[in-house]
TrEMBL record:
Lineage of the organism: Bacteria, Pseudomonadati, Bacteroidota, Flavobacteriia, Flavobacteriales
InterPro entries with a match to the protein in the record: PAP2/HPO, PAP2/HPO_sf
Membrane-traversing stretches: 28-48, 60-80, 108-128, 135-153, 159-176
Keyword Lipoprotein: no
Calcium listed as a keyword: no
UniProt name for this protein: Phosphatase PAP2 family protein
Pfam families: PAP2
Domain (Phosphatidic acid phosphatase type 2/haloperoxidase): residue spans on this chain: 63-176
Key words, A-Z: Membrane, Transmembrane, Transmembrane helix
Species, as recorded: Wenyingzhuangia gilva
Amino acid sequence: MGFIETIIHADEQLLIYLNHFGSEPYDVFWLQITKPLNWLPLFLFWLFLLIKKFTWKQGLFMFLFICIMAGLSDVLVNIIKHSFERPRPCWQVGVMEQIRSLKCSKSFSFVSGHATTSMAVTTFMYLLFKDKFKWTILFYIYPLLFAYSRIYMGKHYPVDILCGYVLGVLEAILYLKLAKYLMNKWFDTNLLK
């Protein structure tokens, strides 16, 4: 067995192990966690923080910028998914028989869009506020729960999640540089350095 095959096999075994922690009483909770709309209170809280840190126009600009970043992240994820064409665990022969699958979709598995986008948005917000509030590290509860829901439901492998996290962090760093540049140029401010 080659190196890549060994990683894929270990990834499948780790998914099977982690997925078995699931049980029916918790299914409703994880089904709710995986829906982006259920995180609306967190997003509104972030909007509040942005408006409080900047003016309402600047805060709204940053919030819209984050929304655009999330949309572009989704586009990039789909390009990657169609390039690798890794089947989801819930329809991968040899894996699907060994996991609990709550919902399955026919799109590809690598990388996880939930992991990538949630990590990009969270890291963007964390980097923006980490010097002002020490508790912003708690923002990372969001991508951890959000992405684990995909393993719980049998929709993604752990490597899909980890690679999505790495991609999300890279996106956040790059987009934050762009946001700072645009904010300083358009609003004639040096609030963001």
